[in-house]
Write a structure and sequence with these properties.
globular, DNA-binding, 14 helices, single chain
DNA sequence: CGCCAGGCGAACA
DNA sequence: TGTTCGCATGGC
């Protein structure tokens, strides 16, 4: 087992890894276990930053740094937000909440599976998919870990097999998207160099991917901090707090989002989401 | 038991 | 453009 310290300020693993942007992290004692690029990793919050442990480390630390987005100018992001009371409350309540940079296919597949599901249930579906079709990984903890199944694998699995992973009507969406990507009709690698609107257009070609899921993938896997996914929770806070009088048209709402929250609006979205979902309520 | 969950897609007015 | 509906499944 190899160990490494990442020096970083204002980074809360608890806020970040349980914020509904990634679905495989599991807390074990004081630490978090998960996988990055098909390698098991354990992360622990320390006074000066984050401690990471892996079985093998060549490239591993680099991948972990990239995944955790340690290089982001966090104070700069916060400073770019509008100073309204709702966002300020969210910032106060969710200190150290960060955005990750996940692997695109895993992130895309996870969010295709997310529609009309609570976070706990998404975790269960993803777990079932990995248990059924992932490869066994070397683990440094008690728990057994499997990889997230490759896109080629999902493309060739029968729909009935996928349905056995509790994903229901999402199974043909997942399989259909996997087929388009495996065939090369949509190139996830190419999205990295496209401007956000064009990258979004590419993602929207995939079955089961609408505006919301496309924006989740842009934000959580491609580091596009200008993507602002609007789900039921965020829609609720926008309506109640920012448009209390009457309901704006879709175009008006989109224009408001794109101008009001600034260039790092994706971060703002995550604060608002986490805030209303976990801090302002008693359930979920 | 009924209700709802980090939506999407198709079929309408 | 703006609704409405069905789509599986599980937790409460």
């Amino acid at each position: 087992m190899f160990r490494q310290q990442f020096e970083v300020r204002d980074y809360s693993l608890d806020e970040t890894l349980a914020s509904g942007q990634a679905f495989r992290w599991k807390k074990s004692g004081e630490s978090w276990e998960g996988t990055i690029r098909n390698q098991w990793i354990r992360l622990t919050q320390k006074p000066g930053g984050i401690e990471a442990e892996m079985i093998e480390h060549p490239q591993g630390w680099k991948h972990a740094r990239h995944y955790l987005q340690l290089e982001v100018d966090y104070p700069g992001v916060i400073a770019s937000f509008p100073k309204d009371e709702h966002l300020m409350s969210a910032l106060q309540a969710c200190q150290g909440l960060r955005l990750l940079r996940q692997e695109p296919w895993e992130c895309l597949a996870s969010f295709i599976l997310s529609s009309t599901k609570q976070i706990v249930q998404i975790q269960q579906i993803v777990q079932a998919l990995c248990d059924g079709h992932g490869e066994q990984l070397a683990s440094g903890g008690e728990r057994k870990w499997r990889s997230f199944p490759e896109v080629e694998r999902v493309a060739e699995v029968a729909e009935e097999e996928l349905r056995r992973c509790k994903m229901g009507f999402r199974a043909p969406y997942l399989k259909g998207s996997a087929e388009l990507i495996a065939r090369g009709d949509v190139d996830l690698k190419k999205l990295e160099v496209l401007p956000t609107p064009e990258a979004r257009e590419e993602l929207l070609k995939l079955p089961g991917v609408g505006r919301k899921i496309a924006d989740c993938v842009l934000l959580f896997a491609y580091g596009r901090q200008d993507a602002f996914p609007v789900d039921v929770w965020v829609m609720r806070i926008l309506r109640e707090r920012y448009f209390p009088k009457r309901k704006p048209s879709a175009a008006r709402l989109q224009r408001f989002i794109d101008t009001y929250f600034g260039i790092n609006r994706g971060y703002a979205q995550q604060f608002l989401f986490q805030y209303i979902r976990t801090k302002e309520r008693t359930n979920s």
